[in-house]
Design brief:
The chain is of the alpha+beta class and 213 residues long. Helices cover 41% and strands 20% of the residues. It contains ten helices and seven strands. The strands form two sheets. The protein has a five-stranded mixed β-sheet, with helices on one face. Strands 1-2 form a two-stranded antiparallel sheet. The N and C termini lie far apart (38 Å).
């Protein structure tokens, strides 16, 4: 029996019974970026108590959303990863992320950015219809956070960490939201030092067209 039921024979109600508990969708969000150890999930969700993370993972396992796997030697670590059923949540998670991004405003006190949250933000704001054909590799740096987006023929793959030879490196802070929300132009973002770049400035315009809130 799910931890919470709504007494309705409804697909939306059933979905909330599986992923409606606090932290559940954030766990799914982080696992969409890739498999993780328990400690990785804790580090990416610094506000979650250990017992709650344990409970949510157990609930997601029992619902067939998450499965445990063993990483091959030499690590032999146990990781959590999404099942095929869990990966079906990618589209609604991205849609919710896009909806929420429009309501972000300025960061609240003590709010942080993580690699997984930023990677998901790139997935959520990707606009294939506005992306250029061909390929462009972006690396985005926000303090110690480094993520990347590889655009190929109007599809995107996002990841954590730097790329060997990115076409454009963007160094930014929370102000990049204004660029992605089209509140300022790429030229204004550079002039006001909202962002700094390494690479062709024209690619910043391409980035702003491709990733929009």
């Amino acid at each position: 029996m799910p931890a919470r039921t709504y007494g309705q024979y409804c697909g939306f109600s059933r979905a909330l019974e599986v992923v409606g508990e606090r932290w559940a969708l954030l766990i799914v969000r982080d696992l969409l970026v890739g498999p993780k150890r328990f400690s990785d999930l804790q580090r990416g969700l610094p506000g979650i108590p250990s017992n709650i993370l344990t409970a949510r993972l157990k609930e997601l396992e029992e619902s067939g959303v998450v499965v445990r796997a063993v990483v091959p030697r030499p690590s032999n670590a146990i990781v959590y990863e999404l099942t095929e059923v869990g990966r079906e949540l990618e589209e609604p998670v991205i849609a919710l992320g896009r909806w929420g991004a429009k309501r972000l405003g300025d960061p609240r006190r003590d709010e942080i950015v993580t690699e997984d949250s930023m990677a998901t933000a790139l997935l959520s704001t990707f606009r294939p219809e506005s992306a250029a054909r061909g390929s462009v590799n972006y690396e985005l740096r926000l303090g110690e956070i480094v993520v990347n987006a590889q655009v190929r023929n109007r599809t995107v793959t996002v990841g954590r960490g730097p790329l060997p030879k990115p076409d454009l490196i963007i160094v930014a802070g929370p102000g990049i939201r204004a660029l992605m929300a089209r509140e300022i132009t790429p030229q204004e973002a550079l002039k006001k030092k909202v962002v700094s770049i390494t690479g062709d400035p024209k690619l910043l315009t391409t980035f702003a067209q491709t990733f929009q809130i």
